[in-house]
Amino acid sequence: MISVICPIYNEENRIDSCIRSILAQDFPKEDLEVLFVDGMSDDRTRDIIGNYIQQYPFIRLLDNPKRIAPTALNIGIRAAKGEIILRLDAHAKYPSDYFTVLVNKLQSTDADNVGGVCNTLPAKDTPMCRAIAHAMSSSFGMGNSHFRIGADHEMEVDTVPFGCFRREIFDKIGLFDEELVRNQDDEYNGRIIRNGGKILLLPQVVIDYFARDSISKTAKMFYQYGLFKPLVNKKLQKPSTLRQFFPPLFLAGIVIGGLLSIFSPTIRLIYFGVLAVYLLLGLFSGIKCTRRGIDILCMPIIYATIHLSYGCGYWAGLFKLAVHGKISVQSNH
Question: Percentage of the chain with pLDDT > 70?
Answer without folding.
Answer: 96
